[in-house]
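U., I forgot to send this yesterday:
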Amino acid sequence: MDLDPGLAALRPLGGFFVLRTDTAAAGPLPTLAQAYAARAPDVAGNPLNFRIRKVAHALGTPELRVAASVAHQGLAARLWSIALGCAVVYGGLPDLDARHLRWDPEGSAPDDLWLTGVRPLPAEPEHLAEVVLDGHLAPLAAALHAHHRLAPGLLRGNAASALAGAARELDRWARRHGRPDSAARPAPWPRGSSPTRSSPAPGPSPARPSGAAAAACTTGCPAGASAATVVSRGRPALPHAAHLGDHERERPLRAGSCGCASDC
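Result:
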């Protein structure tokens, strides 16, 4: 299926998978590239810090590092959901370059991200990792590491958990709608690729996916493991937080030895 200008085929998947494209309605929002690059410590000049303060207030915690981790997992889940959703329903990806995605740090899905124009990318599986890992999660992790000293293993675990959650939701949707071909399942790595990636200092490297709807940890977990095996233990809910996405109300039970959310 060709990408349509409004990415309308994402809507049946649920609000967390929807990506707005009417940027005129979004107003003067910063791009995600600007958010990742912001260095100001105050919330007025730093969209990420604004989001983290909002999450901390909603969770009722004074610990900004806790809020930063939860905000990271929420944004990672949002990005994985959009990319995986497009891969499943369209068989390809739009250009999700951080310079073309406007972000409302005060908003919630689906009214938080706006794409400035739908430009298709080649439909090779490698683009999924390049778009999300290289284009977003690496600079996001570097920014959070610089500002809040979040451990690389925690960020890798968040990224893997976010990917697994998005894949689980797609799996449920596919089975409900008679699309078993789109359900989450193990998939081999592309020839010559690796489930690990060295991280440019100082930012940590998130876990790399295997195919469109499978996940593997950076170490310890078998490449090609299904998303369901990456997060095998369920996650307890945090205290109710109004105006946060579902992925920002949950955190992994605990990290395994490899930094993922399972016991490797």
